[in-house]
Amino acid sequence: MTLRSRLGAAVMLALLVALGACGTQKTDRGTPAPAAAVRIQNKGSDTMVNLALAWAEAYGQIHPEVEIAVTGGGSGTGIAALINKTADIANASRQIKTEERSQAQANGVEPMEVEVARDAIAIVVHPSNPVNGLTVPQLSAIFSGQITNWREVGGQDRPIVLLSRESNSGTHVFFLEHVVRQGSTDDRTLFSPDTLLMPSSEGISAEVRRNPNAIGYDGLGYVTPDQKVVAVAPAAAKPYVLPMVATVNDGSYPIARALYVYTAGESQGAIRAYLDWILGPAGQEIVKAQGFVPLQQSDIGDGVQGLVIGPFPRWQDSESE
Amino acid sequence: MKASKPRRRELVVETLIRVAGFSAIFFVALVFLFLLREGLPAFWKTSLGNLFGGRWYPNEGMFGTWPLILGSLLVTAGAVIIALPLGLATAVFIRELAPNWLREILKPLIEVLAGIPSVVLGFLGMVAIAPLVRQFLHVPTGLTAFTGSLMLAYMALPTMISVAEDAIDAVPSSYRDGALAMGATHWQTIWRVILPAARSGVIIAVMLGIGRAIGETMAVMMVTGNAARIPHEWDALFLPVRTMTATIAAEMGEVAQGSTHYHVLFAVGILLFVVTFLINAIASLVIIRGSPRRGGRLMG
What we know:
Number of helices of chain A: 12
CATH class of the largest domain in chain B: Mainly Alpha
CATH topology of the largest domain in chain A: D-Maltodextrin-Binding Protein, domain 2
Oligomer: heterodimer
Low-confidence stretches of chain B: 294-300
Mean pLDDT of chain B: 87
Radius of gyration of chain B: 24 Å
Structural class of chain B: mainly alpha
CATH superfamily of the largest domain in chain A: Periplasmic binding protein-like II
Number of domains of chain B: 2
Helix content of chain B: over 70%
CATH superfamily of the largest domain in chain B: MetI-like
Number of strands of chain B: 2
Strand content of chain B: under 5%
Shape of chain B: globular
Mean pLDDT of chain A: 81
Largest sheet of chain A: 10 strands, mixed
């Protein structure tokens, strides 16, 4: 009997809590806060998530009526959310794949691309590593597993430990195409199977900081002072260049890429205003502050209008055959 | 009227409990069906040769799951080899040797150990254990299968200790008294009488430990390096590996729904299920085969 009455009390309590929850919800609805009139869902690239947050925060201060919710997850996640119509803006550190584009079109979404910033991919090693410069062909040989000892590229007699982001990261795909395969589309070279795939940028920097054997790569914005950045030459006889704003903009640093946002169809209203602001001086100043490379004003032209590219054919990806 | 009210209430409660009980089975069945529905297409979307090939590189359509299966097995085996002697020794110590007051301190402490989130252990492994492994074992990197095994052993220990301890506790005290009366030393009693008598419980402890280890994801993903290489060298335990769980966790978030890669990841889930099932089946066989002997002894 006592057990049963206790059970009854518990049920009552649960009901009360549930009712209470309903009650508070109602009062919330009754007195609407001076809430944001427009909500923009922004999702995607982990490389860009800090940048997107900084943009959203700065924009929220001058336009409190616009609320921008930023989440990461990766370029693919963002584009998937755009396809499912759960995100308004997708951030991507790579271009959209053919497969994703056709999936979007099947779902009635026409992804439009805007280049919003540039990023250099820095090659990082342990601070005690004596190697100062590597050529792109050397990097390709290192990351495909043909060179396995630092001695072969002028370093100490140590094994090379390869670090990479996970294969679904936009940075990984870019590095494979532009460094491991050196930009050649019919090159089928892969990363060495011994490559350690780290789930985060932090994983790479932690290992590079501690392990004198390690070599890794990551977006310039993620390089901490306790890692050593190696200068890169496009080919054997070319000069070695360190990644920075100037060398990315003049094209002399060989491993640089564009960062994109995608919108469903031609952007309009609040989203359009936000993207115009991102491409403007205030937005680009934040790009610089976050360690990325701002677009040059001459490239931007007349805001989003001038930069929208697409629909356009994309590279063949492996699963489309 | 009044007399029937408690009956009705009982009926309602009974029905609710029955529904709750069946819902557990129902949900497990649903999960399994979902796994099959999403995973089986992988077997005709790619060739079997590709699926059991030696290279895992989904971006290029290479879905060789061998490195992942072997990686999982290697890390798990390493974890069991480390955890078994430690767990058994701790259980024996707590049950047979420790004074009462120490037992009262140790038991809750071990339970606290079980409550440490795996991501915390993973972080500890990445920041503290991996550099030590690299320095002391002179391997190229500290992110190895062995580091993963260490973390998993640590995670499997609490379960193993409590189950093994219960098994030892369940050994009738007449066994112990009999052995001591025959002039056996304390050690001989433990090693020759108590542990063999508790054998099936100890095997269950090991199986639960394996189950915990092979399904663990976060800590493993953080410390094993995730290199999808086939562990074929004699020192493969001290080189990086990539496990099935870490692969699913790392790649599922970004995969395009309905793509071959998506189905293959579910297929990896099925494989994981099959491997776990096989291990459990073998364990049950061992226990069934072992029990008549014990039953006979009890009768004698």
